[in-house]
Design goal:
The chain has about 250 residues and is an alpha/beta fold. It is about 35% helix and about 20% strand. The chain contains eight helices and ten strands. The strands form two sheets. The protein has an eight-stranded mixed β-sheet, sandwiched between helices. A two-stranded parallel ribbon has the order 7-9. Strand 2, helix 2 and strand 3 form a beta-alpha-beta unit. Helix 1 packs across helix 6.
């Protein structure tokens, strides 16, 4: 892996992804709707490209020559209830060349989101996860805990699966960035759906071993390998069912 595209590069986690990638000697292409603002907050080594992540024409230029795409974009508070989050993921998948790794940040409890809720945007994150799994691209799906709720001694990354953790377990945002990047870099990071938290202990140095201790999703699976109480595909909107069928096709 030599070149990484970050979608949502100026966000709380996207900035750290850019920093971490540059620190690993990778080339970073950073997408932003406002290039001037992005250059003011991102490391000097990042190539900033002003583009709409929902524009097919823009995306074709963005993804050219990249080895991995890391999506840390928002879509929770734009007045569309999370639809734009989903649309961005769909557009990126349709623009990518075969074999390009996709690392997607979603949220805790995404797999169990169903019905009316004040967190309705999480349903669109579940649907976006499903697109990634059936797309045929290698991927790492990362569901972070609560940003910055970790304790002062929580220096170690804790990966979980099954989406069963409740409450407000904390995670260092830099740990999220590291898992998103390393999922694309190490062999065992492929086809993983993980929750990430921060816990006590020494920092992780062997990311291959970290991911190897988790289970891979089944090839073409709709949901994470240990997810339970999954929403039936037939309960998804017809447009989502059609998108999934097209990507599977």
């Amino acid at each position: 892996m030599t070149t990484v595209l970050v979608i949502g590069a100026t966000g709380q986690v996207g900035r750290l992804v850019a920093e971490e990638a540059l620190g690993r000697g990778l080339s970073v292409r950073a997408q932003s709707r406002d290039a001037g603002r992005a250059r003011g907050v991102l490391p000097a080594g990042a190539e900033v490209v002003q583009a709409s992540p929902a524009s097919a024409a823009d995306l074709r230029l963005l993804v050219e020559g990249v080895d991995a795409v890391v999506l840390t974009h928002g879509g929770d508070v734009d007045g569309r209830g999370g639809v734009s989050f989903y649309e961005t993921v769909l557009a990126v998948l349709e623009a990518l060349e075969a074999g390009t790794h996709v690392s997607l940040m979603t949220a805790m409890n995404t797999s169990r989101s169903a019905g009316r809720s004040r967190y309705g945007f999480v349903e669109w994150k579940r649907r976006a996860e499903r697109l990634v799994r059936v797309s045929g691209h290698p991927y790492t799906i990362v569901r972070p805990g609560w940003f910055d709720y970790q304790g002062p001694g929580d220096r170690r990354i804790d990966l979980r699966q099954g989406d069963t953790v409740t409450g407000r377990p904390g995670v260092d945002r830099r740990h999220i960035a590291q898992v998103l990047l390393e999922g694309a870099a190490v062999p065992s990071g492929a086809r993983r759906t993980v929750e990430v938290f921060s816990t006590t202990g020494a920092p992780v140095t062997d990311f291959e071993a970290l991911f190897a201790a988790t289970r891979a999703d089944g090839p073409g699976a709709l949901d994470g390998v240990l997810d339970a109480n999954n929403v039936p595909l037939t309960d998804e909107p017809a447009s989502v069912q059609a998108d999934i069928a097209r990507l599977r096709g």
